[in-house]
Design a protein that fits this description.
The complex is a heterodimer of chains A (278) and B (278). With 278 residues, chain A is of the alpha/beta class. Chain A has twelve helices and seven strands. In chain A, strands 1, 2, 3, 4, 5, 6 and 7 form a seven-stranded mixed β-sheet that branches. In chain A, strand 1 and strand 2 form a beta hairpin. Chain A is globular. In chain B, helix 2 packs parallel to helix 3 and helix 3 runs parallel beside helix 4. The longest helix of chain B has 19 residues. Chain B has a domain of 193 residues: 2-enoyl-CoA Hydratase, Chain A, domain 1. Chain B is α/β, with parallel strands linked by helices. The radius of gyration of chain B is 19 Å and the shape is globular. Chains A and B meet through helix 2, helix 3, helix 4, helix 5 and helix 6 of A and helix 2, helix 3, helix 4, helix 5 and helix 9 of B.
């Protein structure tokens, strides 16, 4: 069995992080792979968090932008720091800037609890949402599998740039082809027939999980107008999150969700009918 | 020690496992196989769907208190989580949360036997797993959420995060718990990283005994229905803070690890012994 070539590190996460926050966002006591800084959206400050590649990282399984042990635990800490800082004031919005190729695949990572680290990050984001922080995920690149579960999938609202390279899936296309013994072409053909199998963000938008697909923006080299556009969409999503429920129910209520996630809706309705014995 | 006959829990199918955890005579299945709520996506790919999609939702009582047991059938599609099976788990947890918010406590138990996302339903499986995480984090604030990983499949992928989010995790020596299955690590990172055929190595890294000895799971039990049911009952009395909130502890532990020369699994037991963990 041949081994995978590592994915090419994507520069999009860092590019958008710096464009939005105007800062490199290095944390004084964190790995170089996690960036955090405040940015201005509309009239308020928001906290932006990103995971980025680091070619010299001491954990070699995170050098291409993967979410590993230190990344996930640091995300958890940064989210909870925002919660602690805002305890006596209006809950600051938290923007998860998502460009993550996968969770870290490694022996050491497994032994040291990669699953727990990712759970801690998901826990922190979910807890922030429940505490009233509008949590917005902005997808600018890969949103893959366990990495997306740890960083972004607990958001009140998910936004994505409509651009090539913005991908959502349970496993990278190359890995899925190897696991299922299908060619890349066969996987792409399957994605056209079976929507949840597709990788591209336009197909993902059809599932009703996305709050908004942001079109007409240069994902690789955003101009000033692109940035303004994205800031405006972030502000709108923040306002929408503040006005809505703190759970994830909005992912089931849109007309798109009711059509493409009809089974998810039906299962819940039937469970509610049968929950209490008649 | 009494001379009662040991009854294997691992050998039981999901429905019998749920029955074994509930008070005698209280098992009541919701959305059972006769309702035929099947995956809408598998037939499109030439796979025979199963009438319960591999998840049993059972209401009943535990020590006389209202309960819900969600048991995954490892023998169907590797216990993988698709749209329907995922919605059954998330939807039931959401109803338990609704009851708890109304002051009616429901005791939730997850019997996890799963490889994670069902790759044939990729993005809808991943989405439902995010909803399961959200529900566990919200519900855990009202009532302990108990996880059981018995074996044979183990618990991997996004559902390993669900296990890590549980208030108390009960495992047997036959359980395996990890982010990535050994085969996927070998394929993605190479056989020099991890040899998935080396059973002893796999068990020493992610087996139930190791997970409890290093503080990544709570209770080690024999493969016996009575022992596991008793461990579940005891767990509802506990109130330790969730492991996924122990951010500073795990960040400090990782900082002390040299990934070029990681500890052996035995050395990790000495470093992370569970007395220190919680």
């Amino acid at each position: 069995m041949s081994t995978a070539a590592p994915p090419l590190p994507s520069g999009r996460g860092l590019c958008w992080f710096q464009a939005l926050s105007g800062a490199p966002g290095l944390l004084p006591d964190g790995p170089r792979t996690v960036r955090g800084a405040d940015a201005r959206v509309g009239t308020e400050a928001v906290r932006v968090l990103a995971v980025v590649p680091d070619a010299g990282n001491r954990f070699r399984r995170v050098r291409h932008g993967e979410v590993g042990l230190e990344e996930a635990w640091t995300l958890a800490r940064e989210v909870r720091r925002v919660m602690a800082a805002d305890r006596e004031q209006r809950a600051r919005p938290i923007i998860a800037l998502v460009d993550v190729s996968s969770q870290a695949y490694g022996r050491c990572e497994e032994m040291l609890g990669e699953h727990l680290a990712c759970a801690a990050a998901a826990d922190a984001y979910a807890s922030a949402r429940l505490a009233g922080h509008p949590v917005i995920a902005l997808l600018v690149g890969g949103a893959m599998s366990g990495a997306f579960l740890a960083h972004g999938y607990q958001a009140n609202r998910i936004l994505a740039l409509d651009a090539p390279g913005v991908l959502v899936h349970a496993m990278s296309k190359e890995a899925a082809a190897r696991v299922t013994r299908r060619s890349l072409e066969a996987l792409e053909e399957l994605g056209e027939r079976v929507v949840p199998m597709a990788y591209d963000v336009r197909s993902f938008a059809r599932l009703g999980l996305l709050h908004k697909l942001i079109t007409g923006v240069d994902a690789d080299a955003p101009a000033a107008a692109d940035l303004e556009r994205v800031r405006a969409e972030l502000a709108a999503a923040i306002a929408d999150a503040r006005a809505g429920a703190r759970d994830l129910s909005s992912r089931l209520s849109s007309p798109t969700a009711r059509s493409f996630r009809a089974a998810s809706v039906a299962v819940r309705a039937r469970l509610a009918e049968e929950w209490d014995a008649s | 020690m009494s001379f009662r006959t040991r009854q294997s829990f691992i050998e039981l199918a999901a429905r019998a496992r749920a029955r074994a955890l509930l008070d005698a005579g209280t098992f009541r299945e919701l959305l059972g196989p006769f309702e035929r709520l099947k995956s809408p996506w598998l037939a499109l790919q030439g796979i025979v769907p199963q009438a319960d999609d591999g998840v049993v939702v059972a209401r009943g009582r535990i020590d006389g208190a209202g309960a819900v047991v969600l048991a995954i059938e490892g023998a169907y599609q590797g216990g993988s989580i698709g749209e329907v099976s995922g919605a059954k788990i998330a939807g039931a947890l959401e109803l338990a949360l609704r009851d708890c918010e109304r002051g009616v406590r429901v005791r939730p138990v997850l019997v996890l036997e799963t490889g994670g996302v069902r790759l044939q339903e990729a993005n809808l499986g991943l989405a439902s797993i995010a909803e399961i995480h959200a529900a566990i984090v919200a519900l855990r604030r009202h009532v302990p959420v108990i996880g059981v990983v018995a074996g044979v499949v183990g618990c991997f992928g996004g559902m390993a995060l669900a296990a890590a989010l549980c208030s108390c995790l009960i495992v047997t020596r036959q359980a395996r718990l990890g982010m990535n299955g050994p085969e996927v690590i070998e394929q993605e990172a190479g056989i020099a990283e991890l040899d998935s055929g080396d059973g002893q190595e796999i068990w020493s890294l992610m087996g139930g005994e190791q997970r409890v000895a290093t503080g990544l799971a709570d209770v080690l039990v024999e493969d016996d229905c009575t022992s596991i049911a008793a461990a579940v009952r005891r767990a509802f009395a506990g109130g330790a803070p969730p492991r996924s909130e122990a951010i500073e502890l795990f960040r400090a532990r990782l900082a002390a690890i040299d990934p070029q020369q990681p500890p052996t699994p035995a050395e990790l037991r000495a470093l992370w012994g569970r007395e220190v963990a919680r």
